[in-house]
Every structure is written in structure tokens, then in C-alpha cells.
Amino acid sequence: MTSESRRDPVSDELITPENAVLLLIDYQPVQVQSIESTDRIDMVRKAVITVELAQAYGVPVIHSTVNVATGRNKSTIPQLARLLGDVPVYDRTSINAWEDDEFKAAVKATGRRKLIIAALWTEACLTFPTMDALKEGYDVFPVVDAVGGTSVIAHETALRRVAGAGAQLVSIAQLACELQRDWNRAETVPAFVTELVELGAFPPSALG
């Protein structure tokens, strides 16, 4: 029962806290209310868990909204805004976040090549930056249970499109396990267990 020495966390082929960044895009009231592919309340709950996981492991978050400055849209929903605190917000007019200079510069400034992405809608604000980032050589990981589209077929078609282009679909439970990787990394075990209990992957008794 001896774990091998930890791989280089920057060059590791799998997601690590040191080689990944979370892109959180357009979790705003209008977008949330237009989701029809899944239960909206559950989707928001899972988006919160995704951000909490990133924060627990020290994964930076690049946070973006659309059309707040123009007055056409309200900002990020309170459940996520409270968590994000003073994380900078990159507001855009472009539907595709990758076509916003400030957003793209913020992603590139992290120096990280693995992009975990959660965005609304799946068929637009997730698909378009995913396709562009893949073309620029990034590894992109859409969090499938924290996103949604305007219909089931729109959501599922978008996921097939990005997967066909090379995106690596990931669930929250898989993401948590990939970030943790070894129970011997004791400092993050409490957060790992807490988030998986909140997700429903572990029973409440796992909290001891």
C-alpha cells in the first residue's frame, strides 16, 4: 500500500491543482431561468460545488459575465457571487468569451493549459470558447453536471460537438477525485469529503 511518488503536478496529463484553471461563464439570472435541459436548482447547486472544489484546491477561477455594463443583463446569481467575493469579473458583449480580449488575456496569464469550464448555455457560451481554446492547444474539460442548455437536445448536441472536437467531458465527482488523487494528501481530504457529501456521492456518515 505504497503510493508512487507524486508526478510533476504541472506536466501531469491529468488535472491537478497546479495545472488547471476554472472558467465560470454567465451564471446570470436570465441564463439560469432559460435552462430547460435539467433541473435549474440542482444545476446551480452543482455549479456552487464546482466553485467550492476549485477554491478548496487552490485552482484559480476566471469569472465572466455578459452584458452587465450595457444594462441588458444582471450580474452573477447570488449563490455564486458570494463564493467568488473579490475575484475579478470580466464583463463582455461577445457571446463567445474567447473573443473578449480581457477574458482571454486573463486565462493566458495563469499559464495553465487545462481549462475546466462551466458556462451557460451549453450550446453557446460553453461550446464557442471550448472550440477556440482547443484550437489553440488547450485541454478543455466541460463539467457536464454543472451546465445546461435551452433544451435537452441543444445541451446534448453541444456536448457531442465539443467532445468530437477533443474536449474531455468530466463530472463533478470525477473532477474531485482527479484533484485529490491520493487519500494521503491529508490537507484536502476534509474538503474532498464535504463536497462529495454535498453532491450526494458519499453518505452524510462519511463526515464522521
Overview of this protein structure:
The protein has helices at residues 29-33, 40-56, 78-84, 101-109, 122-135, 152-165, 172-180, 189-199; strands at 20-25, 61-66, 89-92, 114-119, 139-142. 38% of the residues are buried. With 208 residues, the protein is α/β, with parallel strands linked by helices. The radius of gyration is 17 Å and the shape is globular. It has a single domain (20-207), classed as 3-Layer(aba) Sandwich (Rossmann fold). α2 (40-56) packs antiparallel against α8 (189-199), α5 runs parallel beside α6 and α7 packs antiparallel against α8 (189-199).
Layout: helices, strands, pairs:
Blueprint: E1 20-25, H1 29-33, H2 40-56, E2 61-66, H3 78-84, E3 89-92, H4 101-109, E4 114-119, H5 122-135, E5 139-142, H6 152-165, H7 172-180, H8 189-199
Parallel strand pairs: 1-2, 1-4, 2-3, 4-5
